[in-house]
UniProtKB/TrEMBL annotation:
The lineage of its organism: Bacteria, Candidatus Collieribacteriota. This is Oxidoreductase FAD/NAD(P)-binding domain protein. The keyword Transmembrane helix applies. GO terms for molecular function: 2 iron, 2 sulfur cluster binding; metal ion binding; oxidoreductase activity. Keywords: 2Fe-2S, FAD, Flavoprotein, Iron, Iron-sulfur, Membrane, Metal-binding, Oxidoreductase, Transmembrane, Transmembrane helix. SUPFAM superfamilies: Ferredoxin reductase-like, C-terminal NADP-linked domain (SSF52343), Riboflavin synthase domain-like (SSF63380). It comes from Candidatus Collierbacteria bacterium GW2011_GWB1_44_6. InterPro entries: FAD-bd_FR_type, Flavoprot_Pyr_Nucl_cyt_Rdtase, FNR_nucleotide-bd, MRET, OxRdtase_FAD/NAD-bd, Riboflavin_synthase-like_b-brl. Gene3D superfamilies: Nucleotide-binding domain of ferredoxin-NADP reductase (FNR) module (3.40.50.80), Translation factors (2.40.30.10).
Length: 357
């Protein structure tokens, strides 16, 4: 059973990008199990073998611990969460009716998560829908209560609908509006083979509600206004940058920003007016289209995928910048590799993955 559980579990960890949580849990659980075992007279060698073969570390750490509903919102809090659950998972104690068990460890972890997490549910009522491009729709909502967020953050959105498919009724969407705006915007792409969630979202009517919770995300602007940035967005991955630029414009701030915005076709470009206005906040935008055959003669932007030459041409001081990558998984991974091959340190590259595209 262990090989199957390990493979499935590690795939889940990879998909949810919770490697840091799993490793922290394993490290702390291992330390606790070894200390407890040695205290009871077991040899560390036997304990290690037992740990890898018979303890449900993999099942617990990959499948139960990573449940999105119960993990805290930020990476640092998730590391603490993994450490707490690991410590209680590996401990051996009994206090009256309470005794150590994996379930108890999870209860303690969930309590921590509940205390630090943003669990407030907000009902968003649809105010309008805007067709931004042939397959992209913006949904504009009125929240039922005030809430604060940072430009670039996302929420978990629950849309009750009939007969949800196996992908369920919850999705993450970045808040495309700025905290300075009264109405809240999200935007999404729709394909021919949409999930039941997307089908229900598409036909949402003015006055209908959707629930937002779990505000999350560290893909936000640096506090230091002197940090020079390069944003790279693919398709609907543009949403966090719309929020950031709108917010800087509305608060009269200036930053050093170059945005590369990659799309297949010119018609796919959304929020151009915000990025045009963004010049006033220090933004330079470089548009590039990847469907080379369909590029019109009038197109004045770039053509093709971003490569080393394009970056060096548009960003002469590319070595001194912090990079923000947002879009489909594969795109983000490719550009991260490109940047690292160009000598950019991993710590200077922030990523926001949009799985499912
Ligand atoms: C932090 C974060 C922020 C995000 N922000 C946004 C945002 O602002 N806007 C946005 O549109 N999306 C955003 N996403 C992605 C979003 O949560 C959905 O995953 C995405 O929109 C796909 O939706 P869907 O699963 O309903 O698939 P659909 O969009 O209905 O389907 C798209 C296509 O992909 C296929 N597909 C999708 N998922 C799977 C899967 N798991 N397995 C197999 N095939 C699949 C479908 O069959 C279809 O062909 C974000 C994700 C994260 C993690």
């Amino acid at each position: 059973m262990l090989p199957v559980v390990s493979i499935v579990g590690l795939l889940i960890v990879r998909k949810l990008r919770r490697g840091h949580l799993f490793i922290t849990f394993v490290v702390f659980a291992t330390i606790m199990i070894l200390l407890t075992g040695i205290n009871h007279g077991f040899a560390p060698k036997d304990l290690s073998a037992q740990l890898l073969t018979s303890w449900p570390v993999f099942y617990f750490g990959t499948i139960m611990l990573t449940e999105p509903m119960t993990t805290p919102p930020t990476k640092i809090l998730r590391l603490v969460y993994g450490a707490i659950v690991g410590l209680f998972f590996g401990a051996s104690f009994r206090v009256g009716p309470i005794f150590s068990s994996p379930e108890f460890a999870l209860v303690v972890g969930n309590l921590f998560s509940f205390l630090v997490g943003f669990k407030r549910r907000i009902v968003f009522t649809l105010e309008s829908k805007v067709q931004l491009s042939p397959d992209t729709i913006e949904f504009v909502f009125i929240p039922n209560k005030e809430f604060s967020f940072l430009p670039g953050q996302y929420m978990e959105w629950t849309l009750q609908h009939k007969r949800p498919d196996s992908r369920g009724n919850r999705r993450y969407f970045t808040i495309a509006s700025s905290p300075t705006e009264e109405l809240v915007r999200i935007c999404s792409k729709f394909s021919d083979k949409s999930s039941s969630f997307k089908k229900a979202l598409k036909v949402l009517k003015v006055g209908d509600g959707i629930v937002g919770s779990q505000l999350d995300g560290e893909f936000v602007l640096p506090e230091d206004p002197d940090v020079k940035m390069v944003f790279i967005a693919g398709g609907v991955g543009i949403t966090p940058f719309r929020s950031m630029i709108r917010s800087l414009l509305d608060t009269g701030q200036q930053r050093w920003m170059i945005l590369f915005y990659v799309n297949k076709l010119e018609d796919d470009i959304v929020y151009k007016e915000v990025f045009d206005e963004g010049k006033a906040a220090g933004l330079k935008t470089v548009y590039t289209l990847t469907d080379i055959v369909k590029v019109s003669e009038k197109w004045r932007g770039k053509v093709g995928y971003i490569d080393e030459n394009m970056i060096k041409e548009e960003v002469p001081d590319y070595e001194d910048r912090v990079y923000y990558l947002s879009g489909p998984n594969m795109m983000v991974d490719l550009y991260k590799k490109l940047l690292m091959d160009m000598g950019i340190k991993q710590s200077e590259i922030k990523t926001d993955y949009f799985p499912g595209y």
